[in-house]
């Protein structure tokens, strides 16, 4: 009997293994089957003993559960099995349990702590879906009371009254917002609000609720006495000062004179007598929604009464498991747990992983980059596809029968920006023959003709919290306001295409998904941290090795101060920086005056003048990005990699079923047939190549694999409207100014708020100039000229702020002395995560690495590692959260 794939032995190189022991959507199930690092066992959700046995057998490092009961003995067996595994000797890899959802009531948290198992849930992710369920049941005009078929017997919810809320978390806050919008007043009971009345205003502000509509009830009984409708969404707590188990008893049910009660809490918040009395009250509509295993005891309790009612609960009393079972809710929960799993996956990696397991001795001078190192024994994607078809035939054959050639394929990287160049370098370090095609001309004289890396000014900052997902709650409606009012709108909304409107709509939805935003932010921080570790390896800072920074005059500044405007922003910023890890040092206003004497004290912004308060200094680098990219190009060429400028790829085609026979002994100079690259000729590695790149000059380049790093309109053009990620990457415009240095000795960041975001200040290589970049404006996928008028307004706001930051550069007329002004297109996704995936429609031979949300520089080494592993056929679980069809991306394709 063949072993089911989910039970097969782990075959990938030593890395974090993931067991998913809960049902997931068909989409995620399909993705997981392609990853050797993950196993899907949904049947274990209802088999606690089977789960414990599987943990011992499979020894995963990450366990994903839903409503599974995970007890202490199971956790102990799991921890022991992994930590006594000889393959884990010396690794001490952290164990992680991820709850696909919110409640942790079924997990023995004390046992998890004893066995050093980190437990994470995905709070708030399901809140909007559960809240919608509650709202639909509460405000249904007919309801389900006996006789509700007639209008006279309907439960009246059209006349505003008092909406009672037991619990003030993410679910009920959304219910409250809906109730207020319908004209209802609120009676709220939550221990945190009752204990500290001063927090009510903060709660109301956070959830955009009017304080004058809110009454905080001291007890549950007070809420039921006052309310016409009740929503119960409180966590189940069995002990401590905020115990909720049994908090609703028969007295409360009897005192409630309203007509409708909806609960999504575990039924244990009711006493048994309260449930019986609620059932017996025929005038009361009750909906209790939860997992089937929690509803089972309720059905047993009411079995006699249900039997008397014909075998089904009476009309108006509903036990169901519906609130979290909509496709949209399932997709959000899947994306959330994949992001948590991906973060753990990335945190395991080091900068040394750039070169893979067998090529760690390579340096960056060209030595060791020739591809003549030891043969890599890992199979590539084509090999794995051949294995899955059961043909027993390799999809790729070495051209040399004596085994002297490295089993690698020719790879073309489309896009010569910092991400594309870093990917090319990492692939070359791993032994792949690579070439890079860049549409921009080699002459950098016209910034408008360049991509993101060279179009902006010669400065970038790299830190753990660089370019975090933009769509948070504070940015609700930001695309509807122009820059003079703190918004990102650059174009007339009527001029947006359907895909551009879809992107804007997805961004607005992401701003109202704080749970997904939180896990996406954590994943981006992990991606940034891995990128920093990768750059440290490439720069060879620690050991003085012959890295990128050696002998090339490249300026990089370690440690970056982040200046905040106002005490609240400072406190929030410092919390974020400390949560991201690394060394965080508070700098006072006096420190800023001493070390950055040229900085002004106040910054004029659309919402008023803001005062420079203080700063926190964090780990990171400030680099001259043009110089860094040039160094990368030089090192690649020294290693025999062709970097061809002025070469535009118009279209990509793939022969999925064709065997690849790649000549890797040379042909990296772009003239493999010796006839030059003339229009109409096919160039490449001979017949049978898997990917054909149709170039703008009419020629065709054939290769084994293509890695696409371009974005926006170019990405849509190359992959077409049928690709699930079509329309996912749009462009945000930013501004870059080059100014005389007013006396700065170090780089600095200023958190200015919208529409400027974080203003980055970087010194030129000689220190004579400063490069200042900032600003956000939504361009979409149109040409830049479509936003000229909006850019002019954004520039006016930016220059006014810069004049406040550097008062000594201000001219008598109030303008700023500027040496250069540039507009830069930043590729962005609505949810703030990049796209990194092997495109299924191209048989996995086309890999997309795009949409880095202006974080391409810091993330480049991390993205390169993910691409290299995709190319090797050993994809990391982190890429599951970066797929083109994930939740949070536009639902309408281009």
TrEMBL record:
Q: Does the keyword Heme apply?
A: no
Domain FAD dependent oxidoreductase, chain residue ranges per copy: 410-870
Q: Which GO terms describe its cellular component?
A: cytoplasm
Q: Which InterPro entries match?
A: FAD-dep_OxRdtase, FAD/NAD-bd_sf, NAD(P)-bd_dom_sf
The UniProt annotation puts the region (Disordered) at 355-404, 662-684
Gene3D superfamilies from the UniProt entry: D-Amino Acid Oxidase, subunit A, domain 2 (3.30.9.10), FAD/NAD(P)-binding domain (3.50.50.60), NAD(P)-binding Rossmann-like Domain (3.40.50.720)
Q: Name one GO molecular function term.
A: oxidoreductase activity
**Keywords on record:** Oxidoreductase
Bias regions of kind Basic and acidic residues — which residues?
Answer: 374-397
**What is the designated name of this protein?**
FAD dependent oxidoreductase
Q: Which organism is it from?
A: Frankia casuarinae (strain DSM 45818 / CECT 9043 / HFP020203 / CcI3)
């Amino acid at each position: 009997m063949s072993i089911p794939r989910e039970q097969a032995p782990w075959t990938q190189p030593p890395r974090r293994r993931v067991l998913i022991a809960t049902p997931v959507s068909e989409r995620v199930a399909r993705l997981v089957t392609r990853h050797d690092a993950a196993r899907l066992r949904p049947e274990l959700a209802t088999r606690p003993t089977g789960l414990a046995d599987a943990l011992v057998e499979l020894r995963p490092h990450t366990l994903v559960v839903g409503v599974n009961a995970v007890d202490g003995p199971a956790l102990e067996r799991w921890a022991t099995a992994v930590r006594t595994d000889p393959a884990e000797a010396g690794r001490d890899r952290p164990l992680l349990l991820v709850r696909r959802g919110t409640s942790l009531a079924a997990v023995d948290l004390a046992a998890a702590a004893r066995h050093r198992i980190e437990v994470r849930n995905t709070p708030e992710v399901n809140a909007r879906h559960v809240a919608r369920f509650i709202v639909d049941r509460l405000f249904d005009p007919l309801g389900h009371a006996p006789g509700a078929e007639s209008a006279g017997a309907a439960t009246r919810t059209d006349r505003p009254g008092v909406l009672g809320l037991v619990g003030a978390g993410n679910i009920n806050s959304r219910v409250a917002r809906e109730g207020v919008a319908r004209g209802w007043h609120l009676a709220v009971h939550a221990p945190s609000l009752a204990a500290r009345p001063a927090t009510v205003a903060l709660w109301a502000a956070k959830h955009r609720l009017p304080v004058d509509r809110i009454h905080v009830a001291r007890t549950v009984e007070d809420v039921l006495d006052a309310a016409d409708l009740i929503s119960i969404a409180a966590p189940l707590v069995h002990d401590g000062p905020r115990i909720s188990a049994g908090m609703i008893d028969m007295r409360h049910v009897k005192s409630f004179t309203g007509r409708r009660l909806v609960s999504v809490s575990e039924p244990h918040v009711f006493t048994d007598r309260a449930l019986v009395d609620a059932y017996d009250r025929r005038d009361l509509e009750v909906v209790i929604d939860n997992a089937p295993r929690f509803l089972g005891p309720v059905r047993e309790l009411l079995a006699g009464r249900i039997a008397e009612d014909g075998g089904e609960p009476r009309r108006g009393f509903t036990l169901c498991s519906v609130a979290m079972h909509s496709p949209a809710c399932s997709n959000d929960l899947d994306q959330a747990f994949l992001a948590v799993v991906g973060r753990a996956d990335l945190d395991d990696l080091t900068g040394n992983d750039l070169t893979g397991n067998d090529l760690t001795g390579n340096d960056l001078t060209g030595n060791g980059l020739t591809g003549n190192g030891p043969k890599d024994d890992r199979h590539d994607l084509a090999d794995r596809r051949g294995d899955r078809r059961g043909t027993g035939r390799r999809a790729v054959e070495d051209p040399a029968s004596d085994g002297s050639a490295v089993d690698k394929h020719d790879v073309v990287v489309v896009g010569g920006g910092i991400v594309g160049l870093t990917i090319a370098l990492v692939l070359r370090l791993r032994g792949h023959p690579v070439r890079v095609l860049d549409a921009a001309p080699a002459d950098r004289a016209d910034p408008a003709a360049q991509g993101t890396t060279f179009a902006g000014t010669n400065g970038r900052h790299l830190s753990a919290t660089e370019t975090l997902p933009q769509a948070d709650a504070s940015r609700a409606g930001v695309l509807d306001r122009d820059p003079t009012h703190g918004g990102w709108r650059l174009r007339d909304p009527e001029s947006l295409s359907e895909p551009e409107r879809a992107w804007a709509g997805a961004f607005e939805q992401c701003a109202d998904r704080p749970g997904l935003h939180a896990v996406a932010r954590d994943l981006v921080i992990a991606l940034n941290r891995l990128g920093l570790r990768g750059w440290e390896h490439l720069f060879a800072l620690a050991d003085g090795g012959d890295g990128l920074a050696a002998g090339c005059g490249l300026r990089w500044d370690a440690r970056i101060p982040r200046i905040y405007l106002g005490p609240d922003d400072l406190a929030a910023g410092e919390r974020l920086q400390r949560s991201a890890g690394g060394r965080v040092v508070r700098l006072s206003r006096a420190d800023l005056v001493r070390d950055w004497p040229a900085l002004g004290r106040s910054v004029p912004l659309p919402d008023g003048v803001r005062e420079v308060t203080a700063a926190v200094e964090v780990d990171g680098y400030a680099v001259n990005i043009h110089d860094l990219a040039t160094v990368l190009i030089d090192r690649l060429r020294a290693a025999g990699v062709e970097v061809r400028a002025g070469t535009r790829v118009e279209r990509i085609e793939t022969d999925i079923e064709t065997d690849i026979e790649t000549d890797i002994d040379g042909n990296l100079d772009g003239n493999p047939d010796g006839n030059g690259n003339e229009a109409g000729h096919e160039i490449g590695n001979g017949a049978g190549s898997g990917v054909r790149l149709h170039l703008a000059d009419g020629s065709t380049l054939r290769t084994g694999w293509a890695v696409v790093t371009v974005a926006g309109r170019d990405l849509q053009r190359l992959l077409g409207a049928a690709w699930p990620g079509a329309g996912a990457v749009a462009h945000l415009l930013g501004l870059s100014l080059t100014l005389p240095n007013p006396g700065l000795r170090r780089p600095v960041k200023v958190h200015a708020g919208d529409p400027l975001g974080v203003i980055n200040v970087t010194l030129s290589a000689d220190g004579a100039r400063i490069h200042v970049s900032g600003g956000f404006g939504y361009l979409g996928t149109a040409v830049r000229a479509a936003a000229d008028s909006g850019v002019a307004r954004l520039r006016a706001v930016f220059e006014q702020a810069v004049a406040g930051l550097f008062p000594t550069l201000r001219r008598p007329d109030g303008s700023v002395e500027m040496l250069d002004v540039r507009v830069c297109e930043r590729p962005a996704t609505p949810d703030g995560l990049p796209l990194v995936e092997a495109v299924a429609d191209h048989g996995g031979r086309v890999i997309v690495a795009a949409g880095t949300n202006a974080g391409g520089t810091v993330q480049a080494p991390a993205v390169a590692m993910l691409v290299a592993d995709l190319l090797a056929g050993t994809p990391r679980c982190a890429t599951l959260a970066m797929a083109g069809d994930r939740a949070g991306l536009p639902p309408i394709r281009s």
